[in-house]
Amino acid sequence: MEGQETEFILGNKTLVHLGIDANHQLAQLASGSPVEDVNPFDLGIPDQLAPADVHSKLDGMVIEAGDNGLDPSYLQRLREVELEHEDVFWFDLLGNPPALVEPLRVTLRPDATPFRTRPRRNTRDSWKRRVPSSGTR
Q1: How far apart are CA 13 and CA 18, in angstroms?
Q2: Who's near 94: CB < 8 A, 6+ residues apart?
Q3: Alpha helices of 3-119 — where are they, by DSSP H?
């Protein structure tokens, strides 16, 4: 654009071409009926798993732990812990309520002193030593 202008006005045709239709938006507001908001990410997955599904998955994990070499004397205790804390385990990020877990409380020791450190400056070589390469760049 020529000149020192920092602001400019766009016409209705330009706005409609950009996908901004002010007249349509005003008509929607004037009609009073709310427009249904469609969730573009709705995958048709149920909001929650049934408790029986959770229980069967946990039992499968206990059996798998035994198959992978967990001492058989601990399997019964693992089943008891699983049943006692069944409401804590979530397998998918669905519309589940929050897990029933006591919030973690952190307290500093009375003799703790604040400490400030400079940010680290890492070179590419230092990152290559820390992170194994997958062979792709």
Answers
A1: 9
A2: 45, 46, 47, 48, 49
A3: 12-17, 22-31, 51-67, 72-84
Give the domain ranges of the chain. 51-88
45 secondary structure, DSSP code: -
CA distance 28 to 17: 19
Which one-letter amino acid corresponds to residue 54? V
Query: Rounded to an integer, what distance in angstroms lies between the CA atom of residue 30 and that of residue 95?
Result: 34
* Residue 58 CB neighbours (<10 A): 19
Residue 104: exposure state from Cβ atoms within 10 A (0-12, 13-18, ≥19):
exposed
Reported as a single tens digit per residue, the pLDDT across 48-66 is 677 788 888 888 989 999 9
Per-residue pLDDT reduced to its tens digit, 70-95: 998 899 999 898 888 877 777 766 66
CB of 23 closer than 8 Å to CB of 12? yes
